[in-house]
Amino acid sequence: MLGFLAVWGQAQQVIEVAQLTLRVAPGSTEERYYGFAEGDRVLLTVEELGGKSIKELEMAVYPDQVKLLERETTGFTNREIIVQRSAVYVIRLKNTALLGERNCRVIVKRIPAEARYAAFNTAVQWVEKVDTVYRSGGEEHSGYQRREVEKTKKVLVSADTQVVTLLERSERIFAKAGVLYGDRESALEFTLPANTYYPDAKNPYRKTEVVSWAYWIGVGDEADRSFQQANTKALSKMADAAVSLRLVATGGYGALAVLALKGVALFTNPPKGDNVQYQLLKIDVGGKHQVLDQGSSVTAYRRIDKPLQGTFSIKLSNDNYVDGINVNIKVLAVTIARVYADETYTEVVEERITDEALLGKPTVRITRIPVLSDR
Prior knowledge:
The chain contains five helices and 19 strands. It is mainly β and 375 residues long. The protein has two domains: 12-130, Jelly Rolls (Sandwich); 154-341, Jelly Rolls. A hairpin with a 7-residue loop joins strand 12 and strand 13. Helix 2 (220-238) packs across helix 4.
């Protein structure tokens, strides 16, 4: 036994406790806790990796018996602290800068004083400390208590998306020279579905609202072929639209449904064909008209996010002097029907206790403290 102790004394073992990099945010403090045995020689190395100054660095016996304190330092190597009695130590790095974090490498080593402490567990355990304090009448008192309160909130139960056909027409618009056979202009009106709320708009439990709508205008066979080609592309797009695939086949409006739902235009303008002059109008109260869109093209299309209520008109005219044109018009609206229900939940609230309520009554305080794993 004496021979073993002699060998231990000649070559005391250096044990690495921790090697880590700490990020200390502006205006914050980082703390790490370790347990050391009586007689340990603790070697502490700290380096700020960017060469910046650390406002305050300390090592203390928990909670605040300071053994090492450095201010405005960039670090040091193997600073030694002798442990007088087995205890928990805390290493604190403080950054008071308003801007700029500190990145610090921290290395902690220990040299046990005796062989029996070589396997000492430096990890700490956290335990709850309960203190009971009684109030007397000669003090000023304030405090809080917690209690559970049952509350109710409104939650979404279901949401059903629908595509509604508002207009599907084919119009023959005559040429300027053919006005004896019919009109060279046409105007088609449609009304968006009215939003509904139950029991009222302020706090509804069921509501159906228009969220968007779209139109398509096309002249002749070239435009019709372009529309069908866009519908073929729509099959893949609708698969990830979170809407039933039955919408694809609704009236053959797959591409127009994609435009109304997702704002993705799959249509193309044919390279040839007759054009039509068009205007999309919002009919306001009193018969006034607000122009939302207009142009002259073989095809025209657009998704509308606003306005979402009211009556509208599509005005068409033919500027061709000789040939009449056949114009197809399609308008879709997207509605979402939402259903809500009340859900009960429990919430913990903190209430202030009056001075009178505290007098003579115990107050329980619970705190968490670090303790040695080896005791």
